[in-house]
Amino acid sequence: MDWIVPFILTVITASTPLLLAATGELITEKSGVLNLGVEGMMLIGAIAGFAITASTGSATLGIFAAAIAGMVTALVFAFLTLTLMANQVATGLALTIFGVGISALVGSGFVGFAIEPLPALNIPVISDIPVIGPILFGQDFLVYFSIFMVLASGWFLTRTRAGLILKAVGDSHDSAHAIGYNVIRIRYMATLFGGAMSGLGGAYLSLAYTPMWAENMTAGRGWIALALVVFATWRPGRLLAGAYMFGCISVLQLHAQSAGINVPSQFMSMLPYLATVVVLVIISSDYTKIRLNAPACIGKAFRPAQ
Amino acid sequence: MKRTAAALAAVGALALGMGAAQAADPLKVGFVYVGPVGDFGYSYQHDQGRKAVEEKFGDKVKTSFVENVPEGADAERVIRQLAQTGHELIFTTSFGFMNPTIKVAKQFPNVKFEHATGYKRADNVATYAARFYEGRYVAGVIAGKMTKSNVIGYVGSFPIPEVVRGINSFMRGAWSVNPDVKVKIVWVNSWYDPGKEGDAAKALIDQGADIMVQHTDSPAPLQVAENRGIKGFGQASDMIKFAPKAQLSAIVDHWDEYYIDRVQAAMDGTWKAEDTWHGLKEGMVHMAPFTNMPDDVAALAKETEEKIASGDIKIFEGPIYDQAGELRVKEGEVAPDEMLLGMDWYVKGIDAELPK
């Protein structure tokens, strides 16, 4: 059973970038905005975080830079879709393509750089407790932050006035507008938050997961994060569970292979998406469930009534 | 989609540059890469070769490259565009460029083409590849000496002959010094996904591996090895800065001399459409310095490297049995290159199943 603890540790690190990006996208979508540019924003966050960390030697600055870079990218998206009312799906896809290109351009000077991985916040004594010590107390900052943020998002959406307003904007922008809320401003803020979290998800890859810069290093994790939001039916609790499950699946197949169990790895890579489709079918079969969870106005442009 | 966009943009840029280049008469040399030059692996090393050509010939050559070219219809377009814009020598560096290269070559009989890792030639199409597996044998010898658990972790990309050949060669190297070595193989189905490669390495270490070998292109598995305090090998490039304590050596692709030679031949008019498959002897494959190992192991590694180069060690010399126990290479014979190029079976003793 020696492999259990390292296995759980691997699952946690594999899940963290998904969780960060998906939490951001969840809040964005709850406000009624569908930003398919997660992959692009993650890449921009990854290179920004890496470039600043490599240049300054400070991972803290790198993390901030990643969040800001993700936010700036999201701002471009928000301006195009919310102010200029461009199509959100097309703009989101364009954002991903843009992110792939611009991160490669900026990153070309950082290929082959090595940095120190993000340090684990080892707490003396309790980190040394067998089994739970390394799992609960031996991680780096972003792991704790990702869990905190998803829980905080759950609290925000259900327990705060601002969260209820955000949901109202996502469910019926006309009604929210009629009672005096500034729909556009709220959607801007939600989109920027999503960008910052995607940026952090990318930074987790380039600073902690594999501390280096490589072109296109997200390798589709932004798309998994998008699928994850649907899989979780827009609920933070399920998002947390889903992220760890998706992470677990991807790591499990590698362990199965190294243990000599032959599972087609392509099948396992497909599983997160298959699970998402199944969830989609289930929620689509029950109209009330969609009403309760999916933001009704998702992806729709808002034009203030005259 | 992104790759198409990149390729089209690059082609557009080439077309724009065409007018300006016609006045002078440097030899125009084009390179087509399957990946980004920023991968720090395969395409990166080809581009180092291109840079070496530029450095060596200065004003006498003008090189251009198109990266991220998908292996399909786009490749043909990119290659044709290079031929149309006055490139006299064009290197296409991925297996999937083979048919497009042959096709375009027919239309441009005066342009010289060089295709890497393929098997189709024509009057104006030469082929070339490197015997990376020779380096893997040296790595196997080192690993066999260095392992304590006798379990070696191998991160594989795709189960294609190139990779299978590497695994077989590595194992023959390891068994030559330590018959108890076992290898665990994890396929990640990608040439390049650092996160997944790293996770594969972690899974292998959790299964008891204390030496990490990879046939994928990012330094991630080696970084994991460094992090977990075990040893490993770099791939395609010397990756010592990613793993100063872990890297034992690295198998380095080295195209510089080949590219320089071929450009020189094109200039001299001595260029011929021939096949080149070079290894340690000719310097197309290098071993990075032997580090993090005792002197006697380093000496043995050096000796092995030299013996392969001189031909004293023939890696695939019979008798070689496959996993099913069938004799593939008879005693006293050496596996012909055709067999190596199509290798889709493990040698006897490898404790894993080849994915079909």
From TrEMBL, chain A:
The record ties this protein, via CDD domains, to: TM_PBP1_transp_TpRbsC_like (cd06580)
What UniProt keywords are attached to this protein's entry?
A: Cell membrane, Membrane, Transmembrane, Transmembrane helix
Instruction: State which residue ranges cross the membrane.
Output: 6-27, 34-55, 61-86, 93-115, 135-157, 188-207, 213-232, 239-257, 263-283
Q: Which domain of life is it from?
A: Bacteria
Q: Which InterPro entries match?
A: ABC_transp_permease
Q: Does the keyword Cell membrane apply?
A: yes
Name of the protein in its database record = ABC transporter permease
According to its UniProt entry, this protein's organism is: Thalassospira marina
UniProtKB/TrEMBL annotation, chain B:
**Signal sequence residues:** 1-23
* Gene3D superfamilies reported for this sequence: 3.40.50.2300
Q: Per its record, how is this protein called by name?
A: BMP family ABC transporter substrate-binding protein
| UniProtKB keywords | Signal
Give coiled-coil spans as residue ranges: none
Source organism of the structure: Thalassospira marina
- Domain of life the protein comes from: Bacteria
Domain ABC transporter substrate-binding protein PnrA-like as annotated: residue spans? 28-315
The family database entries (InterPro entries) matched by this protein are listed as: ABC-Purine-Binding (IPR052910), PnrA-like (IPR003760)
GO cellular component, alphabetical, reads: plasma membrane
